[in-house]
Design brief:
By secondary structure, the chain is an all-alpha fold. The protein is 76% helix and 0% strand.
Length: 127
């Protein structure tokens, strides 16, 4: 998530300074709302943005109104969404692939153990 935030701020040409200046608040709200789609909870987004969870809840609560009435917010949100979706879908796929590779490794180990057990079973001798 952090790399998506950094990419977003670089893309819009802004250095986040944590102030309450309108352009800072607008940019922060846009990226927060874009991140919420990919997060487990509001606390996760709050941690990435160095904000309180209740602040993120407030951002989400006002998101629809901001899209309609806050000039420039819609464009920032669209940019944030494109960047976040691109970054996090790639990360998500890489994580999923790593998980599958780990499962394959564990299954191959289990198969090897079973083969060894089968090979060590003595066959009855015919008389």
């Amino acid at each position: 998530m952090l790399s998506a935030v950094e990419t977003y701020y670089t893309h819009i040409g802004m250095v986040p300074d944590g102030t309450r200046k309108s352009e800072q608040v607008m940019a922060r709200n846009a990226i927060a709302c874009a991140l919420l789609k990919w997060s487990r909870n509001q606390e996760e987004v709050a941690d990435v943005l160095n904000r309180d969870r209740s602040t993120v809840a407030h951002m989400m609560l006002n998101h629809e109104d901001n899209l309609s009435f806050w000039k420039g917010y819609n464009d920032l949100f669209e940019q944030a969404t494109l960047i976040v979706d691109n970054r996090l879908s790639a990360s998500s796929k890489a994580d999923k692939l790593a998980g599958i590779a780990n499962k394959i490794y564990l299954l191959e180990e289990e198969a090897a153990l079973l083969r060894n057990e089968l090979n060590s079973i003595p066959y009855p001798q015919s008389k």
